[in-house]
Amino acid sequence: MFQIEDNLYCVTNEPIDENEIEKEIGMINEEVQDIPAKNGEGYRIKKGTVIYKIKGESIKEDLSKEQYGFVAFLDDDGQYRGARKYFSEEEVKRLFESKE
């Protein structure tokens, strides 16, 4: 898990093609031993790991486009991997209510 742009992300390890990377949006500044509470903190994500925006994906949820926050990072093996925005129970409820 890591926090960037006031959003908490969970690593999904979905492979991301290098051609899908749009731009750098942040970096892990501190590796923490608990759920990240501040931007730039990562749990089990190494300090210095760069976080990227993926082309055509929203960094934060965009309900009008049914996108829910998807970013990428470069793992220790040199592969781009995905991470999706973590939603609290309250946020999930809000998302479902907005679709009714």
Report on the biggest sheet. Answer: 6 strands, antiparallel
Helix run count: 1
Strand order of the largest sheet: 1-2-10-9-6-3
Order of helices and strands: EEEEEEEEEEH
Total count of strands? 10
User: How far apart, in Å, are the first and last alpha carbons?
Assistant: 30 Å
The fraction of residues in strands falls at over 45%
Principal-axis shape equals: globular
List low-pLDDT spans: none
Radius of gyration: 13 Å
Which structural class should the secondary elements be placed in?
mainly beta
Helix content, binned percent: 10-25%
Mean pLDDT over the residues: 86
Notable traits:
single chain, 100 residues, mainly beta, six-stranded antiparallel sheet, two-stranded parallel sheet, 1 helix, 10 strands, 46% strand, globular
Folded structure, characterized:
The strands form 3 sheets. This protein has a 6-stranded antiparallel beta sheet, with no helix packed on it. It has a two-stranded parallel ribbon with strand order 4-5. The N and C termini lie far apart (30 Å). It contains 1 helix and 10 strands; from the N terminus they run ββββββββββα. A hairpin with a 5-residue loop joins β9 and β10. With 100 residues, it is mainly beta. The model has no long low-confidence stretch (mean pLDDT 86).
Short characterization:
By secondary structure, the protein is mainly β.
Describe how the helices and strands are arranged.
Elements: E1 2-4, E2 7-16, E3 21-27, E4 30-32, E5 41-43, E6 50-54, E7 61-62, E8 67-68, E9 70-74, E10 80-85, H1 89-98
Parallel strand pairs: 4-5
Antiparallel strand pairs: 1-2, 2-10, 3-6, 6-9, 7-8, 9-10
